[in-house]
Design a protein that fits this description.
The structure is a single chain. This protein is an alpha/beta fold. Helices cover 40% and strands 17% of the residues. It contains 4 helices and 4 strands; from the N terminus they run βααβααββ. A 4-stranded mixed sheet has the order 1-2-3-4. It starts with 6 loop residues before the first strand and ends with a strand. About 5% of the residues have low confidence.
Length: 110
């Protein structure tokens, strides 16, 4: 796992699946054909051209307001990690931000 150059997926302000998909598309520079649904996200995550450490921040409010969607998102991330363990790592930031050494710890999804 590489933590020296992570991709940050900031979910602050995300209130629904459409916004989550938009944030994923932007953070991961997903291709134009990305259909913004769970299956398309799973396909894109397992087809990333380079190894990626994805740090998910600001997810707590989304998890509280849309618990089923958040569970599905976690399942998609976890399955992608299981399929490509040397190519994808997903970490959940337990605080509000991710950056320097004074930041809070992260939890791994896989």
């Amino acid at each position: 796992m590489r933590l020296d150059d992570p991709v940050v997926l900031d979910l602050t302000g995300v209130t629904d699946k459409a916004a989550l998909m938009d944030r994923c598309a932007g953070a991961l520079a997903l291709p134009d054909w990305f259909g913004r649904n769970w299956d398309a996200l799973a396909d894109c995550l397992t087809d990333l051209p380079e190894p990626v450490t994805l740090v998910v921040t600001g997810w707590q409010a989304y998890a509280r307001t849309r618990p089923r969607e958040w569970q599905t998102a976690q399942d998609v991330f976890a399955t992608a990690v299981e399929e490509r363990p040397t190519h994808l790592s997903v970490l959940l930031s337990l605080g509000e931000a991710f950056g320097g050494s004074d930041e809070p710890p992260v939890a791994s999804l896989g």
